[in-house]
């Protein structure tokens, strides 16, 4: 997952190939042809609607472009964002990039399937022969 | 019990490390209190009126004695406020009459968890590390996420069981744990599961209630209820699936929760639970769930389908313990003068078991001098000892805030009764009036409008005569300190609710509620008898209700059956006749504490 500071993000262009989607929209109704980037918004980090939107885009619709998290984006939500298919996160201005990386290093794995690792651990482990 | 794998263990340790990282950033000032709050809540850490509260998850209520001993150790070593915190708490509470606040103890909750009330927040990471040593944690015991999954206290041992719900509860625990999509739902989300004919898990009062059933072809599956809940709008769950094959439950719940995450209201805290969505949208919600479920199956490839291998793996953890059923009984006799007490205990506290040679025995934590469901460090250790000696080292936290020993040999009952009596845990009041449910109330909780513990204590004190209690028979008395309804007042045959009028504590009384158990009938909220009462009037109101019951009951009819037969109005008049002429001008005023209502609102 690519992390951008608020100032980095303000200098990257968002052009004709970018869709900015409110978290009240159903992304399954979007025209995605030619779209390279979709910005999903977190008005508050505790408003989790964009996680379901990202799931629809990445997993259900197979959108392969950039899915960007904007708004109240804190380092403590980055792992779950990545699991739901976000590829870029624009961190809230006060967030410390140095603390961000260790959030990704902590867990060896998760139980349930998500938008990226689609199967639950019990199916993955059987596939790998890890679980007797 | 479920046996943790290395994956499960490293996961819990990683979660403890994550909490420590967040705590350290908070203490260092790089994670603000407002940003930390939703994170620590999802590890069970609240700030209450005066001190933090920790809610430890007990998945589907099942505990091993080694885990109970760590809970005892936490009570003994960590559940102590600083002098400054305690002085402020007792000093403030004294202004409305509380003269005693216990420390160094655990509290069993209606959702089968265990709470501590005084652990300083800067010790929280050490406590999480300690819990992780015995496969325990506080994951998702609070916050707007999928909470600890509760179940029948007799799961796996009940004679009326169609299938053991514990393997499914465990598989769903894993599915819901740190689910990336459902960590910030509109509001909290509670699931209860039962595999029995009788509903001992209040499934109709949960956001999702699951009943393991068999269809006409003899196949195992779930009846799925959605949209039950208490709070200020009590609603019982709606059946949205009569039969769902067992292996589809997580695919289906993904649909149920995803539609709620998308559609649930976030503009009004009191309208954010799924019950409001289901009520507002009705069939449209159900149709959307079914459509989403079909998409999960056909378009996503049904990724969450439970494999037979996984069910077998988890089920293997729940085989009954190997007990020597033929070994002679311990040589302990019930004294002749205590035979009638013992007989009453057998009747109320001892339940039948799937295995005819075994019994399930409830230890009563409803007694004078301690709040319902409270146990100090020594009492927690004693429970662990009793579990080791009499129940293969296993205990259950019950929905009614007691502990249950699920594997007791029939021939050991006299010895267990003697041991439990010595520990003060053999009071034969299970399901009787004094086996009441009560939340911690205004002595601890920042959201409470009134205290619960003194009301519970006054009723307990008034009804000490065991002859009288047994004569009155089985009654559900439920007490909540506010409309959040943690004390389940809506489902009590008699419900008591703390309300705030002009900053003073008052109590609304309701009648005829049901949790959905066979004793209580189909789940339904009670009806309020009239304007609220002062705390001093409550024992008189209870007495008036019970006197009316005694004079109108037929034979051994239960209170709830008599209320339904005679009608609400007779009992309503009785309750109102207990009003005192005193205008209650000297009622205690609720001392306002600053700051932490936000925590309690996410309770």
Describe this protein's structure.
The complex is a heterodimer of chains A (about 130) and B (about 600). Chain A has helices spanning about 5-10, 50-60, 80-85, 95-105, 120-130; strands spanning about 1-5, 20, 35-40, 65-70, 90. Chain A starts with a strand and ends with a helix. The mean pLDDT of chain A is about 90. Chain A has five helices and five strands; from the N terminus they run βαββαβαβαα. Chain A has one domain: TIM Barrel. The radius of gyration of chain A is 16 Å and the shape is globular. Chain A is an alpha/beta fold. A five-stranded parallel β-sheet of chain A has the order 1-5-4-3-2. Chain B is built from 19 helices and 21 strands. The model of chain B has no long low-confidence stretch (mean pLDDT about 95).
Arithmetic mean of pLDDT of chain B: 95
Determine the number of helices of chain B (DSSP H or I, runs of at least 4 residues).
19
CATH topology of chain A: TIM Barrel
Radius of gyration of chain B: 23 Å
- Which residues of chain A form runs of ≥5 with pLDDT under 50? none
Overall structural domain count of chain B = 4
- CATH topology (level 3) name of the largest domain in chain B: Sulfite Reductase Hemoprotein, domain 1
What does the secondary structure layout of this molecule look like, with pairings?
The complex is a heterodimer of chains A (132) and B (603).
Chain A (H helix, E strand, L loop, with lengths): L1 E3 L1 H6 L6 E4 L15 E6 L6 H12 L5 E6 L6 H6 L4 E3 L6 H9 L15 H8 L4
Parallel strand pairs in A: 1-5, 2-3, 3-4, 4-5
Chain B lengths: L5 H23 L4 H9 L3 E3 L4 E5 L5 E3 H13 L5 H12 L10 E4 L5 E3 L7 H9 L17 E2 L14 H11 L14 E4 L13 E7 L5 E7 L11 E8 L3 H15 L10 H8 L1 H16 L9 H8 L23 H11 E2 L6 E6 L10 E3 H14 L3 E4 L5 E7 L3 H10 L14 E2 L14 H10 L3 H7 L4 E4 L13 E8 L2 E8 L15 E2 L4 E2 L3 H15 L6 H8 L1 H10 L19 H5 L2
Parallel strand pairs in B: 6-7, 7-8, 16-17, 17-18
Antiparallel strand pairs in B: 1-2, 2-5, 3-14, 4-5, 4-13, 8-9, 9-10, 11-12, 12-15, 14-15, 18-19, 19-20, 19-21
């Amino acid at each position: 997952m690519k992390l951008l500071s608020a100032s980095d993000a303000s200098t990257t262009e968002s052009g004709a190939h970018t869709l900015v989607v409110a978290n009240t929209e159903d992304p399954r109704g979007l025209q995605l042809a030619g779209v390279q980037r979709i910005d999903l918004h977190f008005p508050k980090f505790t408003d989790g609607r964009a996680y379901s939107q990202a799931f629809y885009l990445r997993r259900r619709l197979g959108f392969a472009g950039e899915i960007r998290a904007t708004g109240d984006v804190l380092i403590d939500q980055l792992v779950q964002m990545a699991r739901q298919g976000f590829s870029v996160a624009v961190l809230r201005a006060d967030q410390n990039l140095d603390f961000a990386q260790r959030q990704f290093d902590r867990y060896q794995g998760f139980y349930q399937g998500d938008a990226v690792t689609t199967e639950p651990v019990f199916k993955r482990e059987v596939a790998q022969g890890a679980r007797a | 019990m479920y046996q943790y794998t290395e994956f499960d263990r490293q996961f819990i340790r990683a979660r403890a490390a994550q909490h420590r990282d967040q705590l350290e950033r908070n203490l260092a000032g790089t994670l603000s209190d407002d940003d930390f709050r939703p994170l620590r809540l999802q590890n069970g850490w609240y700030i209450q009126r005066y001190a933090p509260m920790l809610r430890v998850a007990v998945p589907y209520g099942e505990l091993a004695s080694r885990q109970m001993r760590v809970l005892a150790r936490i009570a003994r070593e960590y559940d102590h406020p600083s002098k400054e915190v305690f002085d402020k708490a007792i000093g403030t509470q004294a202004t409305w009459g509380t003269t005693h606040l216990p420390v160094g103890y655990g509290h069993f909750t209606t959702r089968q968890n265990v709470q501590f009330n005084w652990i300083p927040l800067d010790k929280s990471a050490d406590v999480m590390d300690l819990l992780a040593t015995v496969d325990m944690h506080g994951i998702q015991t609070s916050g707007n996420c999928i909470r600890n999954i509760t179940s029948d206290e007799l799961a796996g041992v009940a004679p009326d069981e169609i299938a053991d719900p514990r393997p499914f509860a465990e598989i769903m625990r894993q599915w819901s744990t740190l689910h990336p999509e459902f960590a910030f739902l509109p509001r909290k989300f509670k699931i209860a599961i039962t595999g029995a004919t009788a509903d001992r898990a209040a499934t109709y009062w949960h956001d999702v209630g699951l009943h393991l059933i068999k269809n006409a072809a003899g196949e195992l599956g779930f009846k799925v209820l959605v949209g039950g809940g208490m709070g200020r709008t009590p609603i019982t769950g709606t059946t949205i699936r009569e039969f769902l094959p067992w292996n589809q439950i997580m695919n289906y719940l993904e649909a149920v929760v995803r539609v709620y995450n998308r559609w649930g209201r976030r503009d009004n805290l009191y309208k954010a639970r799924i019950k409001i969505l289901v009520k507002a949208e009705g069939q449209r919600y159900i149709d959307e769930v079914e459509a989403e479920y079909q998409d999960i199956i056909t378009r996503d490839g049904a990724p969450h389908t439970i494999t037979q291998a996984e069910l077998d793996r988890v089920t293997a953890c729940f085989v009954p313990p190997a007990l020597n059923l033929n070994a002679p009984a311990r040589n302990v006799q019930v004294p002749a003068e205590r035979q009638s007490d013992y007989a009453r205990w057998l009747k109320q506290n001892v339940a039948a078991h799937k295995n005819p040679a075994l019994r399930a025995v409830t230890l009563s934590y409803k007694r004078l001098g301690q709040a319902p469901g409270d146990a100090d460090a020594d009492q927690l250790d004693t429970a662990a000892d009793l579990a080791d000696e009499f129940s293969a080292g296993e205990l259950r936290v019950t929905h009614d805030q007691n502990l249950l020993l699920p594997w007791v040999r029939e021939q050991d009952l006299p010895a267990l009764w003697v041991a439990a009596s010595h520990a003060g845990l053999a009071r034969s009041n299970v399901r009787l009036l004094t086996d009441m449910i009560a939340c911690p109330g205004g002595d601890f909780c920042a959201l409470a409008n009134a205290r619960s513990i003194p009301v519970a204590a006054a009723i307990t004190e008034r009804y000490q005569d065991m002859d009288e209690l047994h004569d009155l028979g089985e009654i559900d008395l439920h007490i909540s300190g506010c409309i959040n309804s943690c004390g389940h007042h809506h489902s009590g045959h008699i419900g008591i609710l703390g309300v705030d009028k002009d900053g003073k504590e008052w109590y609304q009384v309701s009648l005829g509620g049901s949790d959905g158990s066979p004793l209580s009938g189909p789940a339904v909220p009670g009806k309020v008898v009239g304007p609220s009462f002062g705390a001093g009037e409550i024992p008189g109101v209870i007495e008036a209700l019970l006197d009316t019951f005694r004079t109108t009951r037929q034979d051994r009819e239960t209170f709830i059956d008599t209320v339904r037969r005679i009608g609400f109005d007779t009992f309503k008049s009785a309750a109102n006749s207990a009003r005192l002429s005193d205008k209650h001008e000297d009622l205690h005023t609720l001392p306002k504490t600053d700051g932490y209502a936000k925590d309690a609102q996410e309770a």
